[in-house]
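Appendix C: a fully annotated inverse folding record. The material below is reproduced so that readers can follow the format used throughout the book. The structure is listed first as tokens, followed by the designed sequence.
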């Protein structure tokens, strides 16, 4: 049987949290059994038909953009395959495109669908498909890359940010790769479609990483991730470090990187065995891991939606997320979002406060002294007023914490929450004390930690 604290931690990292009943049910299994279930769920082909709003011609492009953000947040909060959405979020921050440049929410959806469908498959195959999707072609300027005027943007980022990391190639390699990618464009008559134009392709030969050939764009990927065993291992270590930083904590020890990279390499860059090994490592359940990450705005909001049951159309988080520092489909640059301290600044944290107060709490209570049907609010209030026990404020705090997936709270946080609700109740704020308690729980250090 798995320890409930380990299960809760795994579900925060491999998804967006778990309820008390979900944790209890999974605790009857071992960690390897839970991990196998999570990973196998992802491999099952997902049902990702295009959202219905794309068929409505009355929306403007900015409306498609915001509706797409809402659609994805709803999937994160409700999907029975949480790792699928969490891994899609990882690839969204690693293989970045910005809709402000792409200019088409449907193309961004297509890329998002690729990450969901293929993100647990073979890394090399994912890179191949991503490279010729119109969203990436437009974003990194390969859409009109032509022989005689090769654009180096995609060729550089393919190596530096997507596969190998910095200082693993030369400028001459970038130039050769850029020529190899000429002709891999979008259709002149339809910017939404990929097409290869042989007459625009530089047939070379060029020298790339010491090899003189008539290179093609896909041939560059195969050389880096298959033929050249040195760069294949470099890529394995690069991706492992990024994944560990996303799922566990920053700056992993070298032996963690080396051992997981060997698993990745030995399995020909298949993601399933890599993540299985990652989630089963003892270090993943260490105190360093459990206290190692701050929830990004996306993770934080998706978790609130999971625990409250509210949909994005009710909370409209897309209006608040830019000021929190993370707007979906709009990474700050091709390197994606940073983590931890990146989210901890006064303006971003204030926006979290404002979102809870003006969106979440307003939907939990209609401010006419009548609790809404939301069970978290109703039962927290009933815990306070339904008992004369001197422990009723403690009981209310404990109920609110568990309702938001916090099963291991520090003594200081618990003491502060109890003091706050007790003081407000006795000072005549009885009809607001429970609402403020819920707000403080969602803003607590424990809920802001992933």
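Designed amino acids, in order:
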């Amino acid at each position: 049987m798995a320890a409930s604290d380990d299960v809760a931690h795994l579900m925060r990292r491999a998804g967006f949290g778990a309820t008390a009943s979900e944790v209890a049910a999974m605790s009857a299994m071992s960690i390897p059994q839970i991990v196998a279930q999570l990973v196998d769920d992802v491999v099952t082909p997902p049902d990702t038909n295009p959202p219905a709003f794309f068929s409505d011609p009355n929306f403007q492009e900015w409306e498609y953009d915001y509706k797409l953000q809402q659609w994805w947040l709803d999937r994160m909060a409700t999907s029975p395959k949480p790792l699928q959405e969490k891994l899609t979020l990882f690839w969204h921050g690693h293989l970045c495109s910005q809709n402000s440049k792409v200019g088409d929410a449907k193309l961004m959806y297509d890329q998002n669908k690729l990450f969901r469908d293929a993100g647990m498959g073979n890394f090399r195959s994912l890179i191949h498909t991503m490279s010729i999707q119109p969203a990436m072609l437009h974003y990194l300027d390969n859409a009109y890359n032509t022989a005689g005027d090769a654009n180096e943007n995609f060729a550089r980022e393919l190596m530096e940010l997507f596969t190998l990391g910095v200082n693993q190639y030369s400028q001459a390699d970038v130039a050769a790769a850029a020529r190899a990618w000429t002709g891999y464009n979008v259709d002149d008559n339809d910017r939404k479609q990929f097409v290869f134009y042989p007459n625009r392709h530089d047939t070379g030969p060029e020298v790339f990483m010491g090899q003189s050939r008539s290179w093609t764009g896909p041939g560059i990927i195969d050389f880096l991730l298959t033929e050249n065993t040195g760069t294949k291992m470099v890529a394995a270590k690069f991706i492992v470090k990024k994944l560990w930083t996303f799922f566990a904590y920053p700056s992993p020890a070298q032996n963690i990187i080396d051992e997981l990279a060997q698993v990745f390499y030995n399995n020909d860059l298949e993601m399933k065995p890599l993540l299985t090994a990652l989630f089963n490592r003892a270090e993943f359940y260490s105190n360093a891991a459990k206290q190692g990450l701050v929830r990004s705005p996306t993770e934080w909001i998706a978790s609130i939606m999971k625990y409250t049951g509210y949909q994005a159309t009710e909370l409209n988080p897309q209006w608040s997320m830019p000021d929190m520092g993370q707007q979906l489909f709009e990474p700050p640059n091709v390197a994606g979002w940073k983590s931890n301290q990146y989210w901890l600044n006064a303006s971003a944290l204030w926006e979290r406060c404002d979102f809870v107060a003006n969106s979440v709490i307003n939907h939990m209570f209609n401010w006419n002294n009548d609790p809404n049907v939301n069970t978290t609010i109703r039962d927290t209030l009933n815990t306070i007023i339904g008992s004369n026990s001197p422990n009723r404020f403690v009981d209310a705090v404990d109920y609110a914490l568990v309702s938001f997936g916090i099963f291991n709270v520090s003594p200081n946080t618990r003491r502060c929450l109890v003091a706050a609700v007790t003081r407000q109740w006795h000072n005549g704020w009885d009809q607001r004390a429970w609402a403020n308690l819920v707000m403080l729980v969602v803003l607590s250090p424990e809920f802001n930690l992933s």
